[in-house]
Amino acid sequence: MTHDETSVHIGVNARTLMHDQPGGAIQVAHEITTRLARRNDGITLFGHRNIEEAYPNTTVKSAGFAVKSQLFGLLWEQSILPLSAAQSDVDVLFCPNANNPFVRPAAPRVICVHDILNYLGYAPWYYTAIQRVRVPLSLRTAETIVTVSEFTKGELVDRFDIAQDKIQVVYNGVDDVFFDPGMGTETAVPDEYVLFVGGAHKRKNIDGVVEGFKLLKRHTDLPQKLLLVGPGPRSTYDDTGIDWTDIRDDPDIVTPGYVDQQELKYIYEHADVFVFPSYYEGFGIPPLEAMACGTPVVASDRAALPEVLGDAAEYVDPDSTRAIADAIDSLLDDNELYRTRTTSGRERAQRFRWGAAIDQYQSILEETAKS
Hints:
Blueprint: E1 10-13, H1 24-39, E2 43-46, E3 59-61, H2 70-87, E4 92-95, E5 109-113, H3 117-120, H4 125-141, E6 144-147, H5 150-160, E7 167-169, E8 193-197, H6 206-219, E9 225-229, H7 244-248, E10 253-257, H8 261-270, E11 273-276, H9 285-292, E12 297-300, H10 305-309, E13 314-316, H11 321-333, H12 335-349, H13 354-370
Parallel strand pairs: 1-2, 1-4, 2-3, 4-5, 5-6, 6-7, 8-9, 8-11, 9-10, 11-12, 12-13
Helix pairs in contact: 6-11, 9-12, 11-12
């Protein structure tokens, strides 16, 4: 659908899209925003001016966003953003990271809630305190709420007494690059390796990955190294639960840091096993990306992961390093199990494509604009 087919003027709260090394939720927000912009001529992004390069041929309004900082962005969001949206005559304001102005602008709001991890305390106390105030207000003042899983929808209904008919579930997509065998940029990786991809958050259970891998190394002749891919710790997630100095001193653990999408594609394709024993996920894109690339997955049996991954993963108790080690070992040792998980993983990932998701977002935004 293009702007020629709809007269809806969509505004996007693009405050969170200014990060240089975005985490999963912000990457998803960027993907949704980019694809909506391709479909709609009438779309305006409100945010810091540094996002202009990432969204060419799209109207970006940065009035009042003078300082590139999270704290200033929060203030801007509650004061200047509603005025800018009203002056721009947007029909609906889309907030892809649930960061919406509490004072109603001239247009109704659609917010996307990926999870409530910060509200639950997976962050320093001061950030959790902010979220304990902000999250209920965001949910209460939005006209429509989109969540990325039935798991997250259930949390919103149970914890905040939100009416079920106010919430719509739209599953995230896996980028086309991970399905295309002809794409990917070669990058330096070990000859054989077990892979983890994710941010340096304690809830990601990187310590469980490391300890499970070390346990396997101690009791088997495992030739693989462990590759930990992702951005380093941020101020809002300063307690990662692991000793980074110990990791950097271990010759069997490689930490390349943040990589671009084409490099990540190459890394997934050449991994022997992908391991993701996270304690809490509102969705969980990395294991689906690994599946799309033909790499079998070990995943936690918690939160939204069983809903998203279905019967295509090997599930473990994230509290058990022995279970993590055994699951990795089983996949590497059992050729039939390895082939089964590879095949079922590819099939599962095919269910999550961005085209279908954006169709749903477009319909939701248009319906909310008319409400």
